[in-house]
Amino acid sequence: MTWDAVVVGSGPNGLTAAVVLAMRGRSVLVLEADEHIGGGARSGELTLPGFVHDICSAVHPFAAGSPVFRSLPLEEHGLTFVHPEVALAHPLDGGRASVVWRDEDRTADGMGADAVAWHHLIGKLARDWDRLAPMALGPLLQIPSHPLVLGRFGLPAALPASALGRAAFRTEEARGVFAGCAAHSFLALSRPLTSSFALLLLAAAHAGGWPVARGGSQAISDSLASLLAAHGGRIETSRPVRTMRDIPAARVVLFDVGPRTIADIAGDRLPRHFRSRLRSYRYGPAAFKIDYALDGPVPWTNPDCRVAGTVHVAGTAVETARAEAIVTKGGHPDKPVVLISQQSVADPSRAPAGKHTLWAYTHVPNGSQTDMTDAIERQIERFAPGFRDIVLARRVLSPGWFEQHNSSYVGGNIAGGSNGGLQLALRPVLGRPYRTPDDALFMCSASTPPGGGVHGMAGYHAALVVLEGAFRDGVRSSSLAASAG
Ligand SMILES: Cc1cc2nc3c(=O)[nH]c(=O)nc-3n(C[C@H](O)[C@H](O)[C@H](O)COP(=O)(O)OP(=O)(O)OC[C@H]3O[C@@H](n4cnc5c(N)ncnc54)[C@H](O)[C@@H]3O)c2cc1C
Fold first, then answer.
1. pTM of the predicted model as reported, rounded to 2 decimal places
2. Which residue among 125, 127, 183, 207 has the highest number of C-beta atoms inside a 10 angstrom radius?
């Protein structure tokens, strides 16, 4: 048999591409190297029996706000997003904290002197989310369907987060939480475009929340797989693809893997110049992660942090910028930015009664072998004295571990590549996104627009390109309903 499409890799983008194609009546096979599906959206018992940990992604503002996920019946296939009382908290010394609620007014009120600025900069984007998200979570070079909305986002988004945070806000609360969100860029906050991460993540908090998936992030992957199966698609695990010979006959192949892996697999099918551009794709800093099994809730000094799904432990905006600058220069900060998810606060199914899970990671230079456990725990203790006393077990996942388990995480970089310079938007190479010089080979991973995160939008856009181009399906790129229907 000749498949209409084979997808290499079952991460959220690969599965979304497969679902969109299968829903259009195409025969689809997904080949996954690992014995489990899901790539960066997976869960497992990493510490003690009864504790369910998210191996990679944990917090899902982009999944909850994703235009393609919203258009798919994922709830009918087992996915439930659960929302913590507080979306995001950013503790400061002295028991203070910046608190982002799902409710825009409540959040702005808490920002004191920055209430008006919050409504103006963040609130407006949140209220425009349904028009903004399809553009912001898509290829850059497209005719915007709502130019004014895109302009309102794009102008401040282009600025360095340090500069915009300082100019827009006066309080340490607003500046701190803005800087913490910008740190998701894995870039020094003095770099252009770092504001785009903070603006999108904070707007998403009001638009769709920062939920976790009930039962673990694996539920996102499993729901996509179930939907795929309902439309006749097939997934084969433990099927690493090393060369084109490992791929059964197919009209098109979509690669949900990193650019270097594509170059290795495709070999002579792609011209030498294109392969060398794929091989020179740049990777940024890495993640050093610890999963904890806890004897009880984290004893945060600030009470709002205790009911937050996500806590950014970084201190002031200045400290945050300093730590990220050190990492991008190849160093390991004493006071790192620690991104924390307390999944079990919102989803008690993650741990035995009264116990909790904690997911924490920090940024380190690409390929780092430095143990950041002590630095991470000192930062948490700073805002939650007594934290170490409630640790029942911890499991460290180093940059090397990530690369070993997923070839897309080169050197432990979990963002699908560096977000620096033009590579944020024009990835993996300058040219028509998702396509290669071979009309039957396509790219759909987080190394294509819009980049890292669990949102499925790269897979969605790649599937539309396949439908329009290779299959001449007449689907308009702007039409989500067309692909999902
Ligand atoms: C520690 C960590 C924390 C994160 N936190 C968040 C978060 O909280 N929220 C969020 O939105 N995002 C988060 N992310 C990012 C998110 O998980 C990724 O951006 C996303 O999973 C990328 O999806 P993808 O489909 O492009 O690729 P991936 O999810 O990386 O999937 C690629 C798949 O391809 C498979 N594969 C690789 N090589 C081959 C081969 N040769 N043959 C066959 N299969 C192959 C891999 O095994 C994998 O299953 C996190 C990632 C990590 C690692």
1. 0.95
2. 183
- Angle of helix 129-136 relative to helix 194-207, nearest 10 degrees, comes to 140
What pLDDT is attached to residue 199?
97
Gap from CA of 117 to ligand 1 centroid (Å)? 35
Least confident of 132-141, 246-255, 475-484: 475-484
Closest ligand 1 atom, residue 63 Cα:
11
Rounded Cα distance between 90 and 99, Å, is: 6
CA 20/CA 71 separation, integer angstroms: 11
H or E element at residue 105: helix 104-110
pLDDT of residue 478: 42
Domains of the chain: 3-79+213-281+414-484 (3.50.50.60)
- For residue 13, the ligand 1 atom closest to its alpha carbon is 25
Q: Compute CA distances 351 → 339, 373, 481, whole Å.
A: 20, 22, 38
Q: What is the DSSP string of 264-309?
A: HHHGGGS-HHHHHHHHT-----EEEEEEEEESS----SSHHHHTEE
